[in-house]
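Let's practice the habit of predicting before peeking. Look at the sequence and jot down your guess about where helices and strands might fall. Then scroll down.
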Amino acid sequence: MAYSEDHIALAAEYALGTLDADERAQVETMMSVDKDFTAMVEAWQRKLGVLNQMVGSIEPRPEVWDKIKTAIGHSEPQSPLVLPEAPPPPAAPEVSEPAAPVDTSNVIRLSAQARRWRNIATLTTAMAAALVAMIATQLYQPDLLPDGLRPKVRTRVVEVKTTVAPTPSAQYVALLQKDSGSPAFILTVDGTTKNFTVRRVGATPEPGKSYELWLVSDKLQRPRSLGVIGGNDFTMRPALASYDTDTVNKATYAVTVEPEGGSPTGVATGPIVFTGKLIESVPPATAAPR
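Done guessing? Here is the structure:
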């Protein structure tokens, strides 16, 4: 429901407590029959409640009460009230035409509206000043506010991650060749991960056949297959991760010619065509002196 400015001002003054008895009775009658008007009054009461939270109760000093009693004449026993004698009635004036009555209803209504809106303007100014004061107190002296108005303390955890540069590991290389001739393959092994890469150099593929790489060591009962060397220039595998470092570094690496796809039995069936042993090509990085 749309309300006039007078209704809105009445609701605000009712919440503020500045209405006289007749106006309060008018507001309470409207509240009893109009739920929307009741909601508007309650909204004003909530807005003005912030002012009450910021002001604590203070007991006046005894001398203040004494001054109040003196001002209203209660500081000493009151003397009997003596009414002045009524003056004699004035002589009756000559009968003349009665003057036309003056309509003062508009003046009274406008005066009441002006007073009401002055009160609303004062109230709005007070609320704005209170909000500014509350915000400033929250920023600079939050301990002075009641618990409900204090800003919540926010804790932010900042995680600082330190990036550690990886330490270069040792690198090993073996030339897989026949009779010290040109290398057919180059085998490279990472000293930390034991991943290896086979680089095809001079070996030529044979139709229907595959090259298979083997690890040969005195610590093993028989050669262990490291897989078929692919048809591309590079073949990369982690097959050495299950062997200890000493076995990997001291073993002999051999290449045999097997049926396409590798040995079907897990044991070398074809001739050994290329062999080689690892040598350290890049030493492991040492800690820098502090």
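How did you do? The beta strands are 171-176, 185-190, 196-200, 209-216, 224-229, 234-237, 252-259, 272-277, 279-282.
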